[in-house]
Amino acid sequence: MKAVLNGRPATDASTANAAGLSPEQLVAVYRVMLLSRKLDDKEIQLKGQSQIFFQISGAGHEAVLVAAGLTLRPGYDWFFAYYRDRALCLQLGMTPLDMLLAAVGSKDDPNSGGRQMPSHWGHPRLNVVSGSSPTGTQVLHAVGAAEAGVIYSRVAQIADRQSFHHDDEITYVSLGEGATSEGEFWESLNTACTKSLPILFLVEDNGYAISVPVEVQTPGGDISRLVRSFPGLHVDSVDGTDFFASLRSMREATAYVRARRGPAFVHAKVTRPYSHSLSDDEKLYKPAAEREAEARRDPIRRFAEFLKTNGIVTDDQLAAMTADVEREVNEAAMTALAAPKPAKSTAELWVYSPDVDPTSPAFETPARPEGKPETMVGAINRTLKDEMARDPRIVVFGEDVADASKKDALKVVPGKGGVFKLTHGLQRLYGDDRVFNAPLAEANIVGRGVGMAVRKLKPVVEIQFFDYIWPAMMQIRDEMSMFRYRSGNTWSCPMVIRTPIGGYLRGGGPYHSQSGESIFAHCPGIRIAYPSNAVDAAGLLRTSIRCDDPVLFLEHKHLYRQTYNKGEYPGKDFMIPFGKASVRRDGDHVAIVTWGALVQRSLVAAQQAEKDGISVAILDLRTIVPYDWEAIAALVTKTNRVIIAHEDQVMCGFGAEIAARIAGELFEHLDAPVRRVGALNVPVAYCPDLEEAILPQTADVLKAIREIARY
Ligand SMILES: Cc1ncc(C[n+]2csc(CCOP(=O)(O)OP(=O)(O)O)c2C)c(N)n1
Predict the structure, then answer these.
(1) Listed residue (625, 573, 552, 534) closest to 362, CA to CA
(2) How much is the pTM?
(3) Residue 176 Cα, ligand 1 centroid: separation in angstroms?
(4) Contact at 8 Å (CB) between 227 and 244?
(5) Residue 15's pLDDT band (boundaries 50, 70, 90)?
(6) Which of 239, 358, 417, 690 could covalently link to 685 via disulfide, CB atoms 3.0 to 4.6 Å apart?
(7) What CA–CA distance (Å, rounded) separates 229 from 38?
(8) Rounded CA gap, 14 and 16, in Å?
(9) Ligand 1 atom, smallest distance to 182 CA
């Protein structure tokens, strides 16, 4: 006779036979599910005792996750796992100790070395990539990782590419139904389908995002219904508390993806018996009847019932297994509690690569000037061409960066190559697999770059205008900058974001004139280069590409084609180390620390001040992170008067940081107040007269020089 659960018959042995699993395998499945639940229980107990500091459970999600883990291949496929994916990670090979070391924040935690909350999985040997906490960012990393596999399979010039991918690999990514409301989710489906990528989406739908029910997130309350119209996407909806239904669904989905028929999407309905986290109490918003109905669908209870009903285990054997699992969990907890915490002295480790130091002399290579003077556009374009020839792992993508996406068109047109033509000719030289257009979606561009960089490609992406970088801010601030730190130096995503910045366009208006380097300087983990001339642009871009950290490479639009900053292309190995400012003018009375478009304005102002007998030194910082403190200190010590001149607003501009440091560390060398020159605290207006009033001009710099010189 069949047992009845929640109005449905429990799966019988014939279903199990059809799944091709032996009794021993079925028992092993149950044990992983139970282990996952008991680990949650243990963590909840430890949190109650203040022995761990955060807990979020995978309870209710175990059946579909063990099914996924059985179907996918650890260390072969790639995994971007949601915080509920404890059972998946156990099935893939993570141990209870690996998990509890994260909970206690131990230095030996393989997920993060005590830097990231527990249940944010990461395990290099298994290809489980470090997870973060923003709910939807991982889907774009997964797209980039899946794309990386495709690129490795196609770009024959990558010498050791066979060791970086498998022809039938799958990238798995999971998320909650709430997270499908994030724009990044839709951006990821777009690219997964336009490029027919080998990626498997698993939406674990427990009906709530904290307290918000699915019908508030999703029109009609059913995400799989909405995504069915995506071309080429295999879509299935399944009861994720039913192990056998989940296994069937996962097998179908993975077969589809492995056969390279396209991406797959599995929508699994699960439960969430332990509230959202320990900070949440679902009784506040979920009625008792609903909770009781969920309890009847509990996957562990259902599977235990199946095993008993079909004579695979007895009650006594189940009890013995439970005791054994509890013993294993307790032992792991004892070991984890005794494990060492990271020393306080290590707090600053792993913000940047410990292996490659872009400030070192290795990045100081001589210029070998070639040919006639180039504009900054020419210098950057040639640097990209030479670097792409040197390293076939470099991929370039962004909006409009390709010459022509349509293959037939490329034969008969000159090619676009970027709205400012910085990437012109790259697609023609290096092919569509390495140079391609992205959809009009900035998070998509940066998020995919992160996923590719994690798999050791070198993305050099373009954000078309600095003014439109903001949709990518989550990816930049919470992902790109933190990957290395949050994973304890286990994962990293060295990549370059090139973007045109700044104003002085006479008509650029509020949305084509923005500055804002200080905003990114406030994100530990990113390096920022900001060249003011063609030769520096070539040298700094090469260093950006060859270094092992994420770099924001700021290209001033107004400086792209000036004649005053042209220079001979300095050759295909020329590099400038980061953190080395350039003294553009020596002087005795006043020092100006500057960068970008203010370098030229300061030079002109200095020439004028010279006529008044004021000798002005000018330091072009060239990189904002890191910045050359020694050079600043040397000039301040010499002149005893300093101005910091930048295009960005004075308020919270990067000059504030430098001024504060000078005041704090060089006070006794100052004969005058530290003066800042920058934009008014307003957006940059369209009308050229207003723009002129808003952005700092040569006359503003000259005025500051004269004022400061009077002290
Ligand atoms: C971008 C972002 N916004 C808000 C949060 C806070 N937050 C954490 S989990 C969560 C709900 C997620 O719901 P869902 O995706 O359905 O997954 P579930 O927790 O239900 O498994 C929210 C709002 C966050 N982590 N990230």
Answers:
(1) 573
(2) 0.97
(3) 8
(4) no
(5) confident
(6) 690
(7) 40
(8) 5
(9) 1
pLDDT at 9: 47
Span 286-327, pLDDT tens digits: 999 999 999 999 999 999 999 999 999 999 999 999 999 999
C-beta neighbour count of 636 within 10 angstroms? 22
Q: Is the peptide bond before 626 cis (omega within 30 degrees of 0)?
A: yes
Give the helix ranges, DSSP H, for 56-95: 62-71, 86-92
271 pLDDT more than 70:
yes
pLDDT tens digit string along 22-63? 999 999 999 999 999 999 999 999 999 999 999 999 999 999
**Residue 3, C-beta contacts closer than 8 angstroms, at least 6 positions apart:** 9, 10, 305, 309
Backbone angles phi, psi at 566, to 5 degrees: -70, 160
Q: At a CB cut-off of 8 Å and minimum separation 6, what does 595 contact?
A: 530, 532, 620, 621, 622, 624, 646
Q: How many CB atoms lie within 10 A of CB 314?
A: 11
Distance CA(146)–CA(58), nearest Å, equals: 26
Q: Are 188 and 475 in contact (CB under 8 A)?
A: no
pLDDT, one tens digit per residue, over 468-493 is 999 999 999 999 999 999 999 999 99
Pick from 489, 488, 493, 429: nearest CA to 459: 493
Pocket perturbation via mutation, ligand 1, pick of 210, 279, 473 by most ligand atoms within 8 A of CB: 210
**Among residues of the chain, what percentage have pLDDT more than 70?**
98
pLDDT digits (tens, 9 = 90+) for 87-111: 999 999 999 999 999 999 999 999 9
Q: Long-range pairs for 343-349 at CB < 8 Å and ≥24 separation? A: 343/107, 346/107, 349/489
- Please, are residues 65 and 45 in contact by the beta-carbon 8 Å criterion? no
- Nearest residue to 339 via CA among 102, 45, 93: 102
| Nearest to 350, CA basis, from 490, 494, 480 | 490
Helices (H), 455-502: 473-474, 483-486
Mapping DSSP onto H, E and C, the string for 492-518 reads CCCCEEEEEECCCCCCCCCCCCCCCHH
φ, ψ for residue 141 (rounded to 5)? -65, -40
Question: Is there an atom of ligand 1 within 6 Å of 178 CB?
Answer: yes
User: How far, in Å, CA of 377 to CA of 657, rounded?
Assistant: 30
- Length of the chain equals 711
Catalytic residue positions, numbered: 512
- What number of CA atoms fall less than 13 Å from residue 342's CA on the CB side? 20
Contact call for residues 696 and 601 (beta carbons, < 8 A): yes
Residue 18: what pLDDT? 67
Ligand 1 close to Cβ of residue 84 (< 6 A): yes
Residue 114 alpha carbon to ligand 1 centre in Å: 22
pLDDT at 19: 87
User: In DSSP terms, which residues pair with 676 in a beta bridge?
Assistant: 644
